[in-house]
Amino acid sequence: MSMGSIGEKIALRLRAFNELPVRGKHFLETHRLIAEPDIDAAGIARIIEKDPWLSAKILAAVNSVYYSGRYGEISGLKQAVARLGLDEVKRISLAFSVMNIFPDESGVINSRDFWLHSIGAAMMTRSIAECAIAVKVDADAAYVAGLFHDAGMLFLAQCCPEAYRAVRETAAGYSESLLVAEKKLMDIDHAEAGGMVLEQWKLPEVVVSAVRNHHEPDCAAVPVRPLAQVVHLADFSCSLLGAGEPGDTLPQGFSHGAFHDLGVDPESIQQIIARTEEEIERTKILFHVV
Ligand SMILES: [Fe+2]
Ligand SMILES: [Fe+2]
User: Fold this and answer.
1) Which residues surround ligand 1, an ion (CB under 5 A)?
2) Ligand 2 mean position to 91 CA, how many Å?
3) Domains of the chain from N-terminus onward
4) What is the pLDDT of residues 185-214, one digit of tens each?
5) Centroid of ligand 2 to alpha carbon of 190 (angstroms)
């Protein structure tokens, strides 16, 4: 990137995203608490009750057409958790609160598509990390890296909406990959932009590196390479499920090095893909009912 180039100007603007928004902090904390393996229905209800916005969303979802035929009117959170079950409530809480972290004000990115892809990638990153013999990464770090791997798209769209709109039109019109179009028109791609901002937010180095290298995982520094490879594999698998890189018309390239290094057996990947497909479908319905 040369001095005074467009990339340099964008990098300057990205530096203004110098702190994780309060909503983001709140989300990570809530998610960490909800993900505790031994949490019970009362515990979940207590956590969600502290967030009036989320509580309202959950009650709206429970009483929507999607569920109400089955349960009748539900007015309290505890009742909602008891009726829906822990997993469903976790799914609903996550899906809604994640969309609230960085509401897209630019109108360039379809927020539902974006978060559907991100949630799918996050679930898959965590599951693959758990079953990859060669990887020792914290499940929480894996989840966060998967969830935010494409956050650079949101940052680029927010700091330069017109340029990013042109990038997406170029990618769609010329059958060029999104990454190539970003580099060509903005001199920086979403992986680099995401890594830069998450580093400013002081997220763990392994997460920052995974985000920065998710399209070229074999370029990551050796100690943090496994998570970059896992995110890459998760991202690629989401494309296979039709929840691909939002805004990209071309299927992304796949690093065979990643598959080889991780020591995951294809059968486990098949199972993870099947499970994620189901989760993505349920989340998709959820996004449409509320
Ligand atoms: Fe990406
Ligand atoms: Fe992606």
Assistant:
1) 150
2) 20
3) 6-16+104-289 (1.10.3210.10), 22-101 (no CATH)
4) 999 999 999 999 999 999 999 999 999 999
5) 10
Q: Which ligand is nearest to the CA of 117?
A: 2
Distance 187 CA to ligand 2 centre (A): 19
User: pLDDT for 217-262, tens place per residue?
Assistant: 999 999 999 999 999 999 999 988 888 888 887 666 778 777 788 8
Residues in the chain: 290
Asked whether the beta carbons of 246 and 120 are under 8 A apart, the reply is no
Query: Cβ of 42: how many Cβ atoms within 10 Å?
Result: 10
Ligand 1 centre from 199 Cα, in Å?
17
Q: Which ligand is nearest to the CA of 239?
A: 2
The reported pTM is 0.88
Cα angle value 81/83/88 (rounded, 5°)? 60
